[in-house]
């Protein structure tokens, strides 16, 4: 048993953690009987005065900030060899572990409660004239179900009104405001951005933008609008809070006074408002694919609208909308495009306005919220794009045995270099997603297919064939759903009774079966069905579709 100042006791075996400059033990305050954290800093490891001054600054800040929602500094003492901090023990872990215990994301009411508590701590900090500069889930600790702001190692005095420019680049990149990521001057509003990122993560279990490396992260913040996953209903008030915190331009970002007064911090369940936008599964899948392409190519949605608004009337009619959708993704069929048009044309005037257009493509994220592998693949694609990497070169470099595939060990090494933040369990999930045939190896085709969808390296696909397969599947579905006789259908359209369908006859068949199909689409299907490439579809080829 070690005793300090005749008051604080700890055992060597009760080590909570070890860092670059010291150790933290679980101990006891014999005066109060409370468990405490005892942080012992080895001052001989502090090799310059700047680091010593930073430690003293952190201690002074913690002494001043006394609040139930800020981790309490109980006592500090030391000499030239060591400095000891006696800190309130938060045995409930941090917000990161709290999120994990709740499945990675929180229900809105619980997220609101956590945010309310932390904002009280931030309010005390701001009242003292300080900003934190490293707000993240790991720096929010829990003691007796109370959430507390912790770790003031990067905190500093600042003009809270936002008029003072600061230049020190500190913090954790994925929670940093874009001004810090760009190494430009910033204000006290930098913490507000970090709060917005953390709030988004609490609700949705992921970051607002792909963020596996700084280059791709910053590129996405600048080029991609903030979107909210369609799968989870969150109140308009909470989304408004996040939007205001995550405004890229600091001059336009909400200030501290407005943040503390925001209604999300006091609203009741009965007063929450939700938008009524709904999307069916078919539309969601189409839109998710289109969003991947928009993101992969860094397309400006508003500019795309103007490009396809041929008469410059401020609206897209059905034909213009179809051209836009199919220019983005040639795999989308005419029927699917028309289906989307009806979804977005809320006014029913057979026109899509720029506001309706932006709401569809910029307000919502249509990806599967629980598909971890897909999210990580998006991150990998963003890293490849932002750093101008070639998919083929990456594959060859890690295919060490030159067998034309990647085993799990080779794939793991690739991930650790391209995306070092990936955890081993995440790598396994991604590996399984790539390995389509479950042979425990990833072929180059599997590798490229996942990473090139929608990008400039998407050349290995045959969009026409994929589109034809979708149309064909729909035709087969219609026939089976309506219990139609295959032989009778064939005979009805075999006008010259030679037991073969010519292109024109086949196109008529497609049009009758699915009125939304175009001549171009039915021609694609015809080529797919015509197995022997004689420009005719015989009954054997036709009937094989329905077996």
Automatic annotation (TrEMBL):
* Coiled-coil residue spans: none
Active-site residues, record numbering mapped to chain? 134 (proton acceptor)
An example GO CC term for this entry is:
phagophore assembly site
Q: Name one Pfam family in it.
A: EF-hand_7
Q: Which InterPro entries match?
A: Atg1-like (IPR045269), EF-hand-dom_pair (IPR011992), EF_Hand_1_Ca_BS (IPR018247), EF_hand_dom (IPR002048), Kinase-like_dom_sf (IPR011009), Prot_kinase_dom (IPR000719), Protein_kinase_ATP_BS (IPR017441)
**Which residues are listed for ATP binding in this entry?**
39
- List site positions: Important for interaction with phosphotyrosine-binding proteins: 274
Named from the GO MF annotations, one term is: ATP binding
Q: Does the keyword Metal-binding apply?
A: yes
Q: Which PROSITE patterns does the entry link to?
A: EF_HAND_1, EF_HAND_2, PROTEIN_KINASE_ATP, PROTEIN_KINASE_DOM
Q: Please, one GO biological process term? A: autophagosome assembly
Q: Which UniProt keywords apply?
A: ATP-binding, Calcium, Kinase, Magnesium, Metal-binding, Nucleotide-binding, Transferase
Residues annotated as binding Mg(2+): 139, 151
Gene3D superfamilies linked = EF-hand (1.10.238.10), Phosphorylase Kinase, domain 1 (3.30.200.20), Transferase(Phosphotransferase) domain 1 (1.10.510.10)
For whether the record's keyword set contains Calcium, the answer is: yes
Q: Which parts of the sequence belong to the EF-hand domain?
A: 296-331, 332-367, 386-421, 422-457, 481-516, 517-547
Query: Which PANTHER family did the record assign?
Result: NON-SPECIFIC SERINE_THREONINE PROTEIN KINASE, SERINE/THREONINE-PROTEIN KINASE UNC-51-RELATED
Q: Which family does it belong to?
A: Belongs to the protein kinase superfamily. Ser/Thr protein kinase family. CDPK subfamily.
* Name of this chain's protein: Uncharacterized protein
Q: Which organism is it from?
A: Paramecium tetraurelia
Tell me the organism's taxonomic lineage: Eukaryota, Sar, Alveolata, Ciliophora, Intramacronucleata
């Amino acid at each position: 048993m070690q005793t300090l100042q005749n008051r604080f006791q700890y055992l060597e075996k009760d080590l909570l953690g070890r860092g670059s400059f010291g150790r933290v033990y679980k101990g006891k305050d014999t005066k109060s009987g409370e468990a405490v954290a005892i942080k012992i800093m080895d001052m001989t490891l502090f090799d310059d005065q700047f680091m010593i001054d930073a430690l003293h600054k952190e201690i002074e800040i913690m002494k001043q900030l006394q609040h139930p929602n800020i981790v309490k500094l109980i006592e500090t003492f030391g000499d030239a060899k060591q400095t000891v901090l006696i800190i309130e023990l938060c045995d409930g872990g941090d917000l990161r572990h709290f999120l994990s215990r709740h499945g990675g994301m929180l229900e809105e009411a619980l997220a609101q409660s956590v945010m309310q508590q932390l904002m009280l701590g931030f309010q005390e900090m701001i009242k003292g004239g300080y900003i934190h500069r490293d707000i993240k889930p790991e720096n929010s600790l829990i003691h007796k179900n109370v959430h507390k702001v912790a770790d003031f190692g990067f905190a500093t005095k600042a003009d809270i009104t936002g008029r003072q420019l600061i230049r020190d680049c500190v913090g954790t990149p994925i929670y940093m405001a874009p001004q810090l990521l760009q190494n430009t001057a910033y204000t006290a509003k930098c913490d507000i951005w970090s709060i917005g990122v953390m709030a988004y993560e609490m609700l949705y279990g992921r970051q607002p933008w792909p963020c596996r490396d700084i280059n791709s992260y910053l590129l996405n913040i600048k080029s991609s609008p903030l979107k909210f996953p369609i799968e989870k209903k969150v109140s308009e008030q909470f989304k408004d809070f996040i939007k205001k915190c995550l405004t890229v331009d600091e001059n336009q970002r909400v200030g501290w006074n407005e943040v503390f007064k925001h209604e999300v911090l006091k609203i009741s369940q009965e007063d929450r408002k939700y938008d009524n936008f709904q999307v069916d599964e078919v539309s969601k899948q189409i839109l998710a694919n289109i969003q991947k392409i928009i993101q992969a190519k860094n397309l400006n949605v508003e500019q795309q609208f103007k490009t396809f608004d041929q008469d410059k009337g401020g609206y897209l009619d059905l034909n213009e909308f179809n051209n836009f959708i199919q220019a983005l993704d040639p795999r989308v069929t005419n029927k699917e495009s028309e289906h989307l048009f009806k979804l977005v044309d809320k006014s029913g005037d057979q026109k899509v306005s720029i506001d309706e257009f932006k709401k569809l493509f910029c307000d919502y994220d249509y990806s599967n919220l629980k598909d971890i592998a897909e999210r990580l693949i998006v991150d990998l694609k963003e890293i490849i794009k932002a750093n101008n990497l070639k998919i083929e070169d990456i594959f060859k470099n890690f295919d060490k045995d030159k067998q034309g595939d990647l085993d799990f060990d080779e794939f793991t090494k690739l991930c650790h270099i391209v995306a070092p933040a990936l955890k081993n369990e995440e790598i396994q999930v991604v590996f399984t997603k790539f390995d389509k045939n479950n042979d425990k190896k990833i072929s180059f085709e599997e590798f490229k297919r996942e990473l090139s969808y929608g990008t400039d390296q998407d050349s290995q696909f045959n969009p026409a064939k994929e589109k034809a397969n979708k149309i064909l599947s729909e035709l087969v579905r219609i026939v089976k759903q309506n219990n139609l006789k295959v032989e009778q259908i064939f005979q009805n359209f075999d006008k010259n009774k030679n037991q073969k369908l010519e292109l024109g006859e086949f196109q008529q068949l497609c049009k009758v079966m699915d009125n939304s199909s175009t001549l171009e689409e039915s021609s694609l299907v015809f080529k797919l069905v015509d197995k022997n490439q004689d420009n005719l579809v015989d009954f054997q080829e036709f009937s094989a579709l329905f077996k």
